[in-house]
Amino acid sequence: MIPFLNLKKINEPFEMMLQEKMKQFLEGGWYILGNEVKTFEVNFASYCGAKYCIGVGNGLDALVLIFKAYIQLGKIQKGDEVIVPANTYIASILAILQADLVPVLVEPKLDTYNINPEEIETKITSKTKAILPVHLYGQLCEMNQINAIAQRYNLLVVEDAAQAHGSKLEAGSWKLEEARAGNLSHAAAFSFYPGKNLGALGDAGAITTNDDELATVLYSLRNYGSKVKYQNDFLGVNSRLDELQATFLNVKLPYLNKENQTRKQIAKRYLSEIKNDKIVLPFWDGSENHVFHLFIIRTSNRLKLQNYLKENGVETMIHYPIPPHKQKALYNWNHLSFPITEKIHDEVLSIPLNSTLSVEEIKHIISILNNY
């Protein structure tokens, strides 16, 4: 069986370095917000092209803390609206709700699966204060258009970049130079969940921003609302990037571009060699705007295709089977209708794509899909 993702195999090339770093960590005796966190924050900020990186406990906390910091700064008030794609993992919406804000769902484009900029303007009201574009599956949203809309209506833009580490936007009307996810908005949230393109060995997350004021508040909010020990300026939380996870991320960050390049090479093969009228392949314009955290295909009878692949030795996953507005937890939204989102959630299937796949495995996956 070709596994969908073998994390042990992905981390094997780093094993010796991770063990050495673990030894240094144990010998050092500093376990919370030490030099490894500071080093990662500097290096990841530099990688994204941002001024600041604030390491936090996970990707969800990263989003929640951004919104809570903006509330502290008076740029958003509780009860304000945040525009968010209907087609996303529920964490994007949970973050808005946990900050006592109101999510306003917008349909995606069927080809990219990302939020449709043309639909955003139709949902803007006097209560709208922010847009939360989600770079789903590793592909950047149309940030030039989204930022132009935000400037017209004086809105904040917060990137959910949890799946898009290293994705690049070419120079355009808003960003006059090439820029990476994490430097395409007022602030961005990242997850380093183990399965991400840059994955820790446990939960971890970060926020990037160029805003001095925002960063100052965030450094406090993640640490009980405190800048100076036992002096609390805000009602903060405990969500600090773990020193050990920062150690592992420092080992892996220099290899992120190589990982992304391998993923794109495999994606190019899939896109050029999978030829089956029953299967819809993802859209990609061939630019650096996609790092293929996931390779998503669509078909009208997903269960049949998934079972066929399993019978032929290929493990798959569904990201995500139930759209947020149909989840039991969001029962007040269950009556809402988002046909494009619902179609996507009914039809998508994720096939294996990562740097551990062999040439033979890639060939097998292509062949099996073509024979379906």
Please, could you describe this protein's structure?
With 372 residues, the protein is of the alpha/beta class. The protein has 2 domains: 7-106 and 114-253, Type I PLP-dependent aspartate aminotransferase-like (Major domain) (Aspartate Aminotransferase, domain 2), CATH 3.40.640; 255-370, Aspartate Aminotransferase, domain 1 (Alpha-Beta Complex), CATH 3.90.1150.10. It is 38% helix and 14% strand. The protein has helices at residues 7-11, 15-28, 35-48, 59-72, 90-98, 117-120, 143-153, 212-221, 243-252, 256-273, 302-311, 339-347, 359-370; strands at 52-56, 81-85, 102-106, 128-131, 156-160, 168-169, 179-180, 187-191, 205-209, 226-228, 231-232, 295-298, 348-351. A 7-stranded mixed β-sheet has the order 1-9-8-5-4-2-3, sandwiched between helices. The protein has a two-stranded antiparallel sheet with strand order 6-7. Strand 4 (128-131), helix 7 and strand 5 form a beta-alpha-beta unit. Helix 3 (35-48) packs across helix 9. It is globular, with a radius of gyration of 21 Å. The two termini are 17 Å apart.
Characterize this entry briefly.
With 372 residues, the protein is α/β, with parallel strands linked by helices.
Uncertain regions: pLDDT < 50 for 5+ in a row? Answer: none
CATH architecture of the largest domain: 3-Layer(aba) Sandwich
Distance from first to last alpha carbon: 17 Å
Could you name the CATH class of the largest domain? Alpha Beta
Q: Order of strands across the biggest sheet?
A: 1-9-8-5-4-2-3
The total strand number stands at 13
- CATH-wise, what's the superfamily of the largest domain? Type I PLP-dependent aspartate aminotransferase-like (Major domain)
